[in-house]
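Two proteins were folded this term; both appear here.
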Amino acid sequence: MTRCLQSFGLSLPMSRFERLTSTGWQFIRMGLHRLWIGRFLSQRNGGLFKSEANRSEALSSAKELALVYHRMNQLHLSSNMKDSNGLMMALSSVNLAEAAGSLMEPSNLIEIYLTAALRVKRNYPKVFQFFCRYYLSMAKQTSLKCSHVPSKFQWAFTPYGYRFLVTHRFRYESQTPETSVFSKLGNKADPLSYVLRDYREHLLEKAIQCLVGSGSSKNDVSKKSSSVKCTTKEPVKHTPESEASPSSSADEASDSVESERSFKGSQISDVLSYTELISHSMSIEKPIQFAEQVLLLKDGQKVLSDDRLAQWWCSLLSVAAYWLIGEDDAAEKLYSLIEKWPVEFTGLENNLPKSLFAAWNARKGLM
């Protein structure tokens, strides 16, 4: 990447003074671009009185240089480097991408904004964390302007995905293993892949909490998993008159049973909502470089997925939820995905997947 910069006659700042001035200039340039004068000068990149050919060449160079800084920013984040050039590279990639204008593909611009938001969470002090929301909003605005948003970014524009990006702190390569029990990393050099893995594991955790809670009493679940939001009815208030009346006691018992059924039904509905969000985040439209892909069924069609582990867990939890609500036909459609045992489970010390797979086979055999 450094050689790529040298081909443009540029180099990374070495001293603390160079880093300070370079980063400060990128902040000033970002501010000017929000004003009329910044947009005016960006549209005339290459010179105010240059020909259209020279101006187009300058914009093309800005696009290529923005991608170079973006890739460097990705490697810097995913490898947890400790030098101070990360912030400058993120700002440079955003400024140059915006200067390139229409020459920059919307998918690349969305990725640059999302990676810049991750840089904000990593380097900015708490008082400036609102810039994370700013870059996320810019990415969403860009997605609204393009005819088709790449599926690998669509999850970030859902209400739940947006809230997850804003509120959570993320770990990268040196702090987490490549493969866990529940999810597998896609592209090792892309920090968004680490975030997406954390997002899927978070949704799986929520789905498991709801699924386990649906088999407990209402009071036990409210104590153990207070973070899971499920709709319940208000408890019936006891009065001396109600205690003396047998008919009112029967009504209270009926309301209690109905309330518990509503509580459990809403939890199972939450399980299916969480697994649907996971499925929405797994499909990709084209192979990802340096990542393994597998085929999965989505809406009756075969699409690529970069996470076989999350797909297996998602299918297993969905089947369990469908069984609880009596939707056996919907559950049967997912059997083939569970039967395909992921190779990542082979030699795994954790016996949880094997135990659940045996339980699923036993339950299926009884039907």
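Next, the second protein.
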Amino acid sequence: MPAPDRRDRATRDRLVGRLEGEFREMPGLQLTTAQAARLLALTPDACSRILAALAARGVLRATSSGHYVINQSRP
């Protein structure tokens, strides 16, 4: 699966939703950007933008070890 074009909003929104779903279904999940990129079959750069978007929305938070985890303080 090739990396989606940045301008393809629908594809990006689906990927954001998929990654959010993975974290919500597995609350103990901890992924680095590289691991999440492999999971979604994306380039690390594209995946980094998706993770940053989820962090900006308060869905995820980055740990000091560079992993992303679900933000437990969010309902």
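Residues 9-70 form a domain with the Arc Repressor Mutant, subunit A fold (CATH 1.10.10.10). The beta strands are 60-62, 68-70. These notes refer to the second protein only.
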